[in-house]
Amino acid sequence: xxxxxxxxxxxxxxxxxxxxxxxxxxxxxxxxxxxxxxxxxxxxxxxxxxxxxxxxxxxxxxxxxxxxxxxxxxxxxxxxxxxxxxxxxxxxxxxxxxxxxxxxxxxxxxxxxxxxxxxxxxxxxxxxxxxxxxxxxxxxxxxxxxxxxxxxxxxxxxxxxxxxxxxxxxxxxxxxxxxxxxxxxxxxxxxxxxxxxxxxxxxxxxxxxxxxxxxxxxxxxxxxxxxxxxxxxxxxxxxxxxxxxxxxxxxxxxxxxxxxxxxxxxxxxxx
Length: 271
Description:
alpha+beta; 4-stranded antiparallel sheet
């Protein structure tokens, strides 16, 4: 890319570049620490904006909402004037000596039982006056939100790690290697993010009946699949799986659908 490549950093941070422009800019990131540092700042700013936002209400909304609240608060409550419902008396049978335990209950003498009167407490109902007070409170809350604007915190928003995040990470380590048959493969890993990126430059497409597969090399030297590589000679790929403490990555040719372990290895790049 030209010396003006860094001018594309804003568009790249917002995913506004097409696939070819993005791939070219990612190659530029590999050799430009200034752009990597600036990309980190831009990504952090965008993440902060994704967590909260403000909405400016229309100018006329303030008066309209406050007027509606005032009218609602001043409206008559239409409370009932009939007074509380008279309590109903209930007669219950009570033995003359009070209640007794079931285990030693004496034989009942119906002639000696008396009747006691139990008067229940009057029930409190949520009448029109009670509902009106809640309506005023709800309307006032709506008015406050509408007049002051809305600021919403979204703790559930967690931005997915991207290839750009790994390339621009402050702890990123990178290494490159030449592939069999031509082309260069660069591996970039961030332990902080736990991910790795594979950047291919002029890497030939897989022959017929074969696919290219990426691999992550574990600390013990074994390999785990990093996913299939789509067609294209110059790509930037966020590898699948946890790359924390990975010792390198590689590319191989495999049967369609991929393999559990690499067979026809094109390149292995150590970190």
